[in-house]
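Aim 2 progress update. The chain analyzed this quarter is reproduced below.
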Amino acid sequence: SNLGFGSAISVLTKKVPDYELNRIYEKCNRWSAKRREEHPDEYQKWYDSHKANCKVNHTGSSQSMEPAAAKLIWSRSVEKRKLCYTTFIGDGDSKSFQQVCDLNLYNDTPVRKEECLAHVSKRLKKTLCTVKKNTKNHAYIQHKLAEPKATYISSNYSTAILQHKGQSPAAIAEGLNIFLSHASGTHEHCPTNTWCQWRQTCTSSKQPLTALTNFTQLDIDKTKEAFHTYATEEFCSHLTLGMTQNANESLHNIIWNFCPKAKYISPQSLAISTA
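Predicted structure tokens:
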């Protein structure tokens, strides 16, 4: 893509304090390079007249637009908006966060990375559905968690995070490990007054629910392996807010409804659509 859009959205108010448009013109760049090589004097005259009206504000690939936009938005946050953006919500492979951290804008106040809960849940589900490789004999273990079971685990993983929203990473990690025991049919650590239906029915006249008998021992072992990564205190320290990038996706959906990605649009049309 030759055009890109990046924005900062408030975690608390969902408002957009700042945004940036990135523009690349491959034809302009190719033409200017050719003229520069073949007719340097003529190129200089053209450049002097073209520079003031040229719309290009980004050099590099289209994949580098997002980090470049984030860097610009953060660098002018204090001067332009009188704000400090101290929390960055993004997916796990976001390169923008490192660009922001390298700026070191707020002296002793670092920018904290908060993982998008929706992306983490999807990654967990993908991990559960992936065939693992046995490193000892280099043979593939022909077992992976069925998709309905993986969906059950990942969706309840998100629920457990939200139920401990705002608590310490240790409390979140403990809640996740309690849920894992719950899913495997062990309810002795489940809270008596909350989400565990087995515990609720035990304190009433109803017949207690049975354990999840469709989860085999191999299912439980594989789930524990995945939770070893996704339920540590260090990992949970990036999930304390229980936030997602849904506001960002919603804003982009509105913008691209005005100017679809599948059609050519001018920089002016994009500027109007995002204003």
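The CA atoms of residues 30 and 129 lie 46 Å apart. The radius of gyration is 25 Å. These observations will guide the mutagenesis experiments scheduled for the next reporting period.
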